[in-house]
Write a structure and sequence with these properties.
This protein is α/β, with parallel strands linked by helices and 333 residues long. Helices cover 46% and strands 15% of the residues. The chain is globular, with a radius of gyration of 20 Å. The two termini are 36 Å apart.
Length: 333
């Protein structure tokens, strides 16, 4: 039987849709009823039989930070996809993020070993990689000072929990995806860019990052799980593009004006400081943080050569991905 954590998240919902078409015996955990509706919507985007596929999954209410709720979930599990994570750059969320990403992962890998799970796939992030090389590879040295965000720290520490568990007998694969492009969840993550640009967002930065289509990512997850590869990690990035290129492609696909105002670092520095003060005073989530401001101008290139060579995989182009997502956005929004 297959277990998926984080199945009510953006990537997890797409993974479950893929698994529901290919596999039997799928169990997924959720924290509250409202989160299930977002996954249901993802299923309905891609199939008229979305509800039927959704209810093939055995949904169990549990929390990765509560080991007592998790124990019954692991009975009979052979394969495990661990995607549950908390993503935030708000300092107010640091404690919760550490609990979910680090302590939650420790709970998962400990139970995986206790219940003799055959293989685990852990969803990490390029945030957990070093940044000193060009391009960045799986061997790029991690530096605590270079990776200043608490989110990056927790994802790196969660990987350490997985590697620790492999020394205790667990077979695991870690994936480090770049920015994931996909439809649905239009109010968060990269998908929110489609909504913002549709509503005529006018600014861009000169940063560069890696990007990958969500279907490429979940297909690679499935391939990695079915393969004999264990105790290894892979960067998952289709292409390195500037934010300007990405924003222009989205605008063109949505038939909207391209963003034309170049955001300068000094402007972002003023704004994140203002947001930091507002967060401390009013306890509200900042629109921009020190980390997100700086990352908007960083020019990072990532290499997926190791993954391509290992799995003989061909990625969808970023341009094609954006066209397909825009088509769905225009149809349903």
């Amino acid at each position: 039987m297959i277990l998926v954590t984080g199945g009510t998240g953006f990537i997890g919902a797409h993974l479950l849709f893929l698994l529901a078409q290919k596999e039997e015996g799928i169990r997924a955990i959720y924290r509250n009823e409202s989160s299930l509706e977002k996954t249901k919507k993802i299923f309905s985007l891609y199939s008229k039989s979305g509800d039927e596929l959704f209810y093939k999954i055995e949904w169990v209410q549990a929390d990765v930070t509560d080991i007592f709720s998790l124990e019954p979930v692991f009975k009979g599990i052979d394969k495990l996809y661990h995607l549950a994570a908390f993503v935030s750059f708000n300092p107010l969320d640091n404690k919760r993020m550490h609990q979910v990403n680090v302590e939650g992962t420790a709970n998962i890998v400990n139970l995986a070993n206790e219940y003799h799970v055959q293989k685990m796939l852990h969803m990490s992030s390029i945030a957990a990689l070093g940044s000193s090389d060009n391009p960045i590879t799986e061997k790029t040295h991690w530096n605590w000072k270079e990776n200043s965000s608490e989110y990056a720290h927790t994802k790196y520490l969660s990987e350490m929990e997985v590697w620790r568990a492999t020394q205790e007998g667990l077979n695991a694969v870690i994936l480090n995806p770049a920015i994931v492009l996909g439809a649905g969840f239009w109010d968060e993550g990269s998908a929110s860019l489609f909504d913002k640009i549709y509503n005529r967002m006018s600014f861009y930065s000169n940063g560069i990052n890696g990007f990958v289509d969500v279907w490429d990512l979940v297909n690679i997850m499935y391939l990695a799980m079915q393969s004999d590869v264990v105790n290894d990690s892979f960067i998952v990035s289709s292409e390195n593009k500037s934010y300007k290129q990405i924003f222009d492609m989205i605008a063109d696909a949505l038939h909207k004006p391209r963003p034309t105002f170049l955001l300068k670092p000094w402007m972002a520095n003023i704004f994140w400081r203002f947001e930091a003060v507002k967060t401390k005073v009013f306890k509200t989530a900042p629109i921009l943080t020190k980390h997100t401001a700086r990352s908007a101008f960083r020019q990072h290139h990532y290499s997926s050569k190791k993954l391509i060579d290992t799995f003989d995989y061909s990625f969808k182009s970023v341009e094609q991905s954006i066209k397909e997502i825009a088509e769905i956005y225009l149809k349903y929004m």
